[in-house]
Amino acid sequence: MAISAKDVMELRKQTDCGMMECKKALTEADGNFEKAIEILRERGLATAAKKASRVAAEGMVYADYCPACKVGVVIEVNAETDFVAKNDKFVDFVKETTKVIMKQNPADVEALMACKTEAGETVDEALKNLILVIKENIKVRRFTRYEGVCSAYVHGGGTHGILVNFETTNDIDAKDEFVAYGKDIAMQVAAANPGYVDEASVPAEVVAKEKEIMLAQMAQDPKTANKPEAVKEKMIEGKIKKFFKENCLVDQEFVKDGDLTVAQYTAKVAKDLGGEIKIVKFARFVKGEGLEKRADDFASEVASMVK
């Protein structure tokens, strides 16, 4: 019998399964909704929808760069437990999704879900199949894609993922020394957690807010409260310089050599390689950052089962 789009949409609404899965189930069930739901449940597809409500704040962050196509990607894929990050199928899904982002350049996660993998299925279909195997809620949370010369770094087996974008001249990005430099800068971002590339990239409102906070602190400190405004302004200048040094990547002390700033280290490497290097932007992902972690209370769970 013919299956209408309305019926497919209704089954999808009830089960949250994919459109194609719903259509296939309805076709096999001759349009019987209850039978179609039973078919989806038997295949394990309907359970994926139930898992979608469970907290996913573990998983892994991954970053990769393709020197041949000059595209870099950093991605976060979450799951419910940290054990999943060690599952080969999960890791393969993350890496395959990264390749899809590199090649197809989706606008956002929603667009990514509709992209096709090399196996011919959509990322959304691959994700649902993975949920069936791993039996946890899994979500692609976010990604950043840069075109141009990049350096990618993954720390702690997937706790941190860093992607740094550069502008270079004279093809120095192809040299091993530049690759080592790029990794150093990515590790700097991972360790020192800068908020901005340089002073020029710090929004004016951020600087203004910092000054406001500093002035309020001075007003409450007996040692500075009664100082002339000109003196306070001079002190503020010094504090803002310190703020830039701590929060701007190029102004930070280089983690491998405290005698150099990142800008000085960059200039040194560029001179040695016979070209120019500019750090353009970076993305720093931390696994589960900003997400509510699942808090398992085993005692309460057992108590509820007893009741």
From TrEMBL:
It comes from the Bacteria. Keywords: Cytoplasm, Elongation factor, Protein biosynthesis. Its main location: cytoplasm. Residues 81-84 are annotated as: Involved in Mg(2+) ion dislocation from EF-Tu. It is found in: Cytoplasm. Belongs to the EF-Ts family. This is Elongation factor Ts. The gene is tsf.
